[in-house]
């Protein structure tokens, strides 16, 4: 069974997602995603991405500490066979995450200009 390829972690406004590619196979492949936070020191299953058929996994609830290193890995399961795990590069939210620009609302009240700034979600 081939392993997933092209693992990429994207993170914008604290929404962190692992994406991967997988070739077409006769049966529908299922995927298992695991995460290793630095402070835990070992891999654990990502419960929302166990036996998923999607080619991505939302890790927003798993990665909260912006300064801590995290490692991610994924394997494919096709029928009764499984691939080797493939590991993504180290991910640190503070270093690799992006924060989008805030939404602005300008309005005029008499001789004043009001600027409302909304934080990203």
TrEMBL record:
One of its GO terms (molecular function) is cytokine receptor activity. It holds the Pfam family Tissue_fac. GO terms for cellular component: plasma membrane. This is INGR1 protein. Residues 1-84 form the Fibronectin type-III domain.
């Amino acid at each position: 069974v081939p392993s997933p390829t092209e693992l990429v972690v994207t993170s914008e406004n604290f929404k962190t997602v692992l994406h991967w590619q997988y070739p077409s196979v006769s049966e529908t492949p299922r995927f298992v995603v695991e995460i290793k936070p630095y402070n835990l020191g070992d891999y654990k299953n990502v419960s929302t991405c166990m036996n998923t058929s999607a080619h991505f996994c939302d890790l927003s609830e798993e990665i909260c500490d912006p300064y801590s290193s995290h490692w991610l890995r994924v394997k494919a399961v096709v029928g009764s066979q499984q691939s080797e795990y493939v590991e993504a590069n180290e991910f640190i939210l503070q270093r690799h995450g992006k924060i989008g620009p805030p939404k602005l609302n300008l309005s005029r009240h008499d001789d004043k200009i009001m600027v409302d700034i909304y934080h990203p979600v």
